[in-house]
Amino acid sequence: MAQASSQVLPATIGDSEFDRDTAVTLREAGVYDAELSAGWTIIHAVNGGYLLALLGRALGDALPHPDPFTVSAHYLTPSVPGPAVIRTQVVRAGRTLSTGQASLFQYDESGAEVERIRVLASYGDLDALTDDVRTTAKPPAIPPLSHCIGATDAPDGSRPPIPGSSAITDRLMLKLDPTTLGWAVGAPSGKGEMRAWFGLADGRDADPFSLLLTVDALPPTSFELGLKGWTPTVELTTHIRCRPAPGPLRVSITTRNLAGGFLEEDAEVWDTADRLVAQSRQLARAPRG
Amino acid sequence: MAQASSQVLPATIGDSEFDRDTAVTLREAGVYDAELSAGWTIIHAVNGGYLLALLGRALGDALPHPDPFTVSAHYLTPSVPGPAVIRTQVVRAGRTLSTGQASLFQYDESGAEVERIRVLASYGDLDALTDDVRTTAKPPAIPPLSHCIGATDAPDGSRPPIPGSSAITDRLMLKLDPTTLGWAVGAPSGKGEMRAWFGLADGRDADPFSLLLTVDALPPTSFELGLKGWTPTVELTTHIRCRPAPGPLRVSITTRNLAGGFLEEDAEVWDTADRLVAQSRQLARAPRG
């Protein structure tokens, strides 16, 4: 949205930095080459949601159905910017759903493949779903976008205290609910909640693949729990429930159980039509802090 | 618990019907033979949680770590009682966590293997976790066990209206919160909630593998939403957060988003020490009803 509000025309689905940086090239049946962009890193790690979008696009090409319905990812080793290969397998091709597996590999010094992340996913056609909706869930209580706070207007006027986070920050329209931003000024709320308006900085609207980025793009709830440092994801499962309407998304992330050095993060993503478009849950290691 | 309350000594972990029916036999490196018992069927389908426990035990043997921390299962084809083979793969063996994959196959008329369910899982050692607990989640509000209602004392004096469900029902101590039992007497609450006390009928206490059964053992929340019929699981991911204390478990299942012919079911399992021992979420097809 940042650029959309300037003189530049907004990017479109299929023609945006996100689309270019998540492009996969068919090498041979089921095998795709990719280049992990340095533009989606937090600290020195490539964002897990960005990696999920890459894997999601490869499976969308390999499977007979186009849209991710449920994607389960187990993170194995940290990814770094640079070349990668995604190997996919069609596990089952059904009438309304198909299931596939994909692994993303990078290369060690000797050129041997090192597996970074493995995914099991079931795909379908979101446009073929019924209109039946009986949702009791309510959109997150978040102030208007204009009242929320982004990286360049942090409450103390500084950048948010995430060293090296600027790469991905520059590509996101991320406006945090001030009531979940205490951590940024050294006063965490103690509640495991994070809420934000989310978009891509170049104005590209959301689609099922960008939703895979959205569910893992906010600061970790552990910051509001007073824990500094990295919260590495062990496993992240995302349900895409409908095709998002154009415009900024509302994202809420909640942690209810921090125990034994691990925590869960539940994410909900709502679109401008007040529909719950994605639900995700991850298990992550809690920071020592 | 049913038998525990009679003259029979309660079964123990390792020596119970659940342990016998989830036993896997090493055929060759990473490959296990199993026999799916008809004792854990609902209608004509083998319960998905029972299948998960079988896969969990095979991975517990194949991986260097003993306990499932997070298990992601994608259900491919309906399982039937009878012989099965589980093929496992060690994806990554780390210091505190290891990740594995397992598939359960049965055989078609020609004897060819048909894949029923595929699992990605990360294992660790629950006994090695820190005691740090900062849980804001609260145990489910459920009446005392003596005020809840089981299969043999359904409100209208009949068996619950799940044809053919008696096989698994006889093996579970399942006492439902009367406020989530309206469906059993034709008066569903319209809320996507189901709560129950859970145990194994022979008194065997819970462990991480039986928790994989527990998260998928209650009647579907869709019954309380007024929808009759089958709610087949597409994907089910379970986090085991600590080793459960002895005694009956409290289980709450919640559905917040029934839309487009699919619904999510979130399960929480609490032990007698008031600890949140397991969290799960599944994506399932909503009944047409």
Automatic annotation (TrEMBL), chains A, B:
| Database matches in InterPro entries | ACOT8-like_C (IPR049450), Acyl-CoA_hotdog (IPR042171), HotDog_dom_sf (IPR029069), Sec_Metab_Biosynth-Assoc (IPR052389), TesB_ACOT8-like_N (IPR049449)
Reading the lineage from the top rank, the first entry is Bacteria
Instruction: State one Pfam family annotation.
Output: 4HBT_3C
Where does the Acyl-CoA thioesterase-like C-terminal domain start and stop, copy by copy?
A: 162-284
Among SUPFAM superfamilies, the record links this protein to: Thioesterase/thiol ester dehydrase-isomerase
Pinpoint the Acyl-CoA thioesterase-like N-terminal HotDog domain residues: 37-122
Q: What is this protein called?
A: TesB-like acyl-CoA thioesterase 3
Native organism is Streptomyces hundungensis
